[in-house]
Amino acid sequence: MGTHSIKLTINGKHYVEEVESRILLSDFIRENCGLTGTHVGCEHGVCGACTVIVNGTAVRSCLMFAVQTDGEEIQTVEGLSQDGELTPLQQNFKECHGLQCGFCTPGILMSAQDYLAKNPEPSTQELKEMLSGHLCRCTGYDGILKAIQKTVDENKQLALTEGS
Amino acid sequence: MKPPKFEYYRPNTVDTALSLLEESGFDGKIIAGGQSLVPIMNMRLASPECLIDINQLHELDFIEADDDKVKIGTLTRQSRIEISDLIKNNIGLLHEAVPFIGHVQTRNRGTFGGSLVHADPTAEIPLALMASGGTVHIASADETREVQIEDFFVTYLTTDVMPTELLTEVHIPIWKGRVGFAFDEISRRHGDFAIVASACQLTLDDHNKISNVRLVLGGVEAVPLLVEGANEIMIGEELSDSLLNKVADIVTGVVDPESDLHASADYRRHLAAVYTKRILQTAYNRARR
């Protein structure tokens, strides 16, 4: 049961690491790479706190082994803001009280980031269904929904301005 | 939570994957999306000695159609099926069923074939496939073979696929004529395992009489239940309240659910009848349009 050498990119930075096959991607990100923004909740795919973007798609990092991501590209919550500047989505979480304790926030941000990229004009119902993949034990869904909805509205407005 | 140690292989071709399966025998286990396997490994309910990762077998990630059937590769992600126009236009039942699977984030990774071989009796893809009919293609190092979907599910979490075999693709017939379908399920929260799930597909003749019907129920037996007795009595009939009641009686008689934390056997039996009526009516109305 040897270890495996893996090369991958996280938030644009290259990593070469030796891992045991059984190491979960979530633990690898936190412990080997020191990126503790990705939170670990249930470790069986239910709570959504560990959601990251792998090759452009939001997935549960507790349901993948690190060894499976050899050669792949990963984005975690640390990779969202650029030069200390929050993304509009993050800014709206701040403005709309989209987080209380903040434990579920990184996962929701990564999910929403991917979801809005693929579905620019979702209905409120669709947003709620997307959010059903995340547990917020503070039950702060109202603020979370408002923050995402506000981002959708701003993006629409931006598209209109750019279009005209 | 950590899974026990295991050997890991990541083959790049189907042939390599099949030889690895052959070599590892009962110790080997395929991992595709891992959305069911990894949780049970994390909880140490399963501890395969050797994982063979098929995520690099891109040749098994496809959706194709000809005049009569749609072919879906085993590695096709559930989220790709969800947004596929080819699926929507040709196998509407599957299109309707997929959003009930887990959540967006698990459908992004979970695969079509993975759901079939995992064979949870409440899972959506097995149910939709039973109601459409179809052929499952299975390969091993020695041979390839086909199995009708009716013979595929053996018992709870067990299919006809042997430890040295790999499900490669599924062919689903495109139903022609006045087709109606419906899928529905009940669970306490969206994305939970269904307490009872139901699927049906039917065709009508020119006089609005049912010419073919496949009603399937999940969560009431160890495998998706094709309710043959009920399907037979509907042929040649228009759907009426009295027919629906007769069908519901048959369903109540044949299902043999178990009680668990989520629902008693009696409640499941009751739900099976309620959902039977509901989806048959929806499918019939859609076919009449």
TrEMBL record, chain A:
Top-rank taxon, per record: Bacteria
SUPFAM superfamilies cross-referenced by the UniProt entry: 2Fe-2S ferredoxin-like, CO dehydrogenase ISP C-domain like
Pathway assignment: Alkaloid degradation; nicotine degradation
Boundaries of every 2Fe-2S ferredoxin-type domain copy: 4-80
Swiss-Prot/TrEMBL keywords: 2Fe-2S, Iron, Iron-sulfur, Metal-binding, Oxidoreductase
GO MF, one annotated term: metal ion binding
Protein name per its UniProtKB record: (2Fe-2S)-binding protein
Automatic annotation (TrEMBL), chain B:
E.C. designation(s): 1.2.99.2
The keyword Cytoplasm appears for this protein: no
Domain FAD-binding PCMH-type positions: 1-177
Pfam families named among the record's database cross-references: CO_deh_flav_C, FAD_binding_5
Keyword Oxidoreductase appears in the UniProt entry: yes
Organism: Jeotgalibacillus soli
Highest taxon listed in the record's lineage: Bacteria
Xref: InterPro entries: CO_DH_flav_C, CO_DH_flav_C_dom_sf, Diverse_Substr_Oxidored, FAD-bd_PCMH, FAD-bd_PCMH-like_sf, FAD-bd_PCMH_sub1, FAD-bd_PCMH_sub2, Mopterin_DH_FAD-bd
GO molecular function: FAD binding; oxidoreductase activity
Protein name: Molybdopterin dehydrogenase FAD-binding protein
Enzyme class: oxidoreductase
Keyword set, alphabetical order: FAD, Flavoprotein, Oxidoreductase
